[in-house]
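Researcher: Sequence of Chromosomal replication initiator protein DnaA follows. Predict its structure.
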Amino acid sequence: MKYEFNFSNRGPVVDVKEQLIESLKSKISRKIWELWFETFKVESVSDDLIIFTVGNLFIKDWINERYAKQFKEIVKEVTGKDISYTIKDEVIQESCTPKSALNESTPLVRKRPVLLSEFNKEYTFENFVVGLFNEESYDGAIEIAKNPGKMNPFFLYGGVGLGKTHLLHAMGNYMLESNPDLHVMYMTAEKFTNDLVISIKNGTSNDFRKNIREKLDVLMIDDIQFLAGKDGIQSELFHTLNYFIDGQKQIILCSDRTPTQLSEFQPRLISRLQMGLMVKVNSPDNETKMEIARAFAKKNRIDLNEEMIRQIVRASDNIRTMKGIINKIAFKNAKNSVDESTVSRIVNEISGIQIRKVEDKAVEKEVFFQSLASVFDLRPAEIDAKLRTAKLSNARQVGMFFARKYMGKTFAEIGEWFGRDHSSVVYACKKVEESVRVGNAIVKKEIVQLQELLHIQNGESAG
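Model: Prediction complete. Tokens:
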């Protein structure tokens, strides 16, 4: 029997179930609703209990952890009473054994996903800023994350600093959160190449193929443009693509250009890349840039007014540059509160770097460190601190090499910047130089990103 309340001051009898859903929708963004509430229903309403249902246990836990307060509010708002509520998941209800077969030893435990890759927890669909410029890529990523295997391959492309990596990690996080049974792996094209080459040398290529093709449900490969000219690796990728497509598994590929622009790629591979869903991540408009800048500022816990935000947006030619500027403002803010004049000076410094000629390599340490921090997703203060992690060591070594080769700094100057002795600086420069020489795609990408942030395109060692 449908349970109804009569709101005399609102006209006719109102269906409480519909009213509960509409009230909840008004308190939750469209983005969150489409992501997490697609299976949400009101199962029943009685005098003492309201029962909601969702698609599975993991969505239930996610909603309970984040929206308990909103649920209490809407129940009181709609019914006028403090009625208890519960959220059930349909999967457990449908698949569990009859009550007579259950006993105290039958646990209902949330299963933890198998972590084959470390996805950045800060990169989610919820905090991805959506505008007309990237709505298609965002919608495509959500569709694939919700229905892996539906459209193959998913090919995401676009320029530097536009959010491709954010979307890849958001997809990984969502898949593992909503379906921990999935085996999801993210790797760069370089890792795919290196793992294959090592397996061939060791005579374990069949194990490599089995681990990739048979054990995975979702495979993400970033920066596939670096496979140009590597015919053997492309053949392996081609057959892997076919395996995933035939098995209705999901393969996701990311590039800085369209398939037809991938030079030195096999025609048959290009054809395969075009057969799925291809989506471009475009550059944001000014309004969206403002929103992104506000989000970065909020994340860094700095209070910027609209004029400050506008200054930052005007000085930023891509999102990564914008992040670098805000990182520097946050660095300053940690010591003293920033005002409009401080922001203007920082923006002018960044703008000054952008219009300098290549010959002018006198880039201040502070500006360089905030650019380096932006590339490696760190805080400038971490690079300058005494902390030692693999990520920090890598960032410092690349920074030392870059300062030497592209900024003309002496070993002594670099040592002073990074707090390292002469031999440590020389070692770091030689190590990164060797990585570049052998074609390390990740290191090359990091150097290119620094060049773009600082607008330094070429450079030669000072000798």
